Amino acid sequence: MLPIHKQIALSDITVRREQLRKNNQTLIFTNGCFDLLHVGHVYALEKAKKEGHILWVGVNSDASVRALKGNARPIYPQEARLYLLNALQCVDGLILFDGTDCARELELVQPDVYVKSGHYALETLNPNERRMLEKCNASIRFIPPLPNWSTTKTLERIRELFEKEP
Q1: For residue 59, what are the β-bridge partners?
Q2: Cα 105 to chain centroid, rounded
Q3: How many CB atoms lie within 10 A of CB 47?
Q4: Which of 49, 56, 76, 82 has its CA 20 to 30 A from that of 24?
């Protein structure tokens, strides 16, 4: 069992969120699979943190990643993905979720700012998540992605390397 001290239980979200409000701290939220943590992820998380005081990250569970990406994924199990994100200084809290969207978690978190990679646009956000963000009046921001850094591109590079080997 890996130590993941930044993980927040669903039952604790509301109390922790209220404490942040009392302290006048801006809560930023982002979410993703973080299936194979890479430079693009860390870059986006560090940029997201600059949008406020506290950064909470929603992480898709293994079942959720399989539902979104297929049975060959995730590359790393959820415990490993949480552990890697837990080690990042810019991340203040981690919320594991099972759905293919995190609308339920967004309703609890009620972020001040929601951040996604620039691979997305307002029109391509999950409609359930977008409705919840609008309901809680969250500001939605997009971080321009680092070119050539995505999990898909990383996996393609790995495949190419193995195909070239004798």
Answers
A1: 32, 96
A2: 12
A3: 19
A4: 82
Beta bridge partners of 32: 59
Residue 73 token pair: 């994924």
Question: Exposure string (b/e) for 4-36, b if CB count within 10 Å is 16 or more?
Answer: bebbbeeeebeebbeebeeeeeebbbbbbbbbb
Give the three-state DSSP class for 143: strand
CB 58 within 8 A of CB 31: yes
Reported as a single tens digit per residue, the pLDDT across 146-159 is 888 788 788 888 88
CA triplet 140, 146, 149: central angle to 5 degrees?
115
3-class secondary structure, 37 = coil
Q: Domains of the chain: which residue ranges?
A: 10-164
The residue among 108, 113, 139 whose CA lies nearest residue 52 is 113
CB 62 within 8 A of CB 77: yes
Flag whether pLDDT at 140 surpasses 80: yes
Only one residue has tokens 């390397």, namely 161
| DSSP element (H, E) containing 102 | none
Judge if pTM exceeds 0.85: yes
Structure tokens at 44: 């986006």
